[in-house]
Amino acid sequence: MRIEETGFEGHDAVALEDGPVRAVLVSGAGPRIASFASGGHPNLLAWLPGAGIDLDDGRRFSFYGGHRLWVAPEVPEWTYEPDDDPATMTRTGDAIRLEVGPVRVPLRKVLEVCIDGRRLVVDHTIINERDRPVALAAWAITQFTPGGTGIVPLPNAPADPHGLQASRLLVGWPYTDFGDPLLGLGTDLITVTARRTTPVKLGVELRRGWLAYVVGSTAFVKRSQHFVDARYPDLGASAECYCNDVFLELETLSPVWELPPGEGVQHRESWELVAVEPGATPAEVAAMIEETSA
After folding, report:
1. In terms of pTM, does the model score above 0.90?
2. Nearest residue to 116 (alpha-carbon basis) of 95, 140, 143, 99
3. Which domains can be identified in the chain, with CATH numbers?
4. Tens digit of pLDDT for each residue in 77-90?
């Protein structure tokens, strides 16, 4: 694997490359993953200069774009703390570790990234630097350019032998319109069309282990583990999809852990870009993803 220092949109960055897989990590702010391309498939991650949230104290949280690490549950005092500071970069074997903090909030964020075959493995860690325990979850958020379709799989196995017990969790936010024609609620899939003017957000239990974003003949697939009986933020969601007129986000979360001082919570995702037939239905894309996952 080749690792080289580079730049991305005016920020210091480092590129990892192994065969057809190439990822660019921004170290100048964040840390963030700005680009992921593989085997002729283009980078689908959004880069969003100027986009952000104005905070009540007059500061601004800049999204920048790409993939970032947030802290859940979503509360302004730590989730929206600006992360414009440079990250410390170290190489550990074939992995790159980017670490930032604590700056103003006593939490340390770490991204460790490596290439495994055609997949990018992304390890997220949040370490409690307070002098007391704190309950939190790692929240991995990937932003995509609009124009495609987000696919969120619902659990499709019964909870009991007779199929009589509830087996699916679907969480909605106050601004989500379940009658929105750009939101598809199917038998075992939710689809979110990223061509919208109003925001929407949904959360599920990621029992099938993956989320996808499809543009043309490319599907970005990210995988993460759902831990049965663990406590998750947002009424129990381990995966979420948010979409507005500027970007679509695919998000996975770790369970909520009570962290003593100096302890951390870890959360792993793996990413892959795969070819799909142009015009393939979400159900066909889902079947292909699960066939290759078996």
Report:
1. yes
2. 95
3. 2-293 (2.70.98.10)
4. 889 988 888 999 99
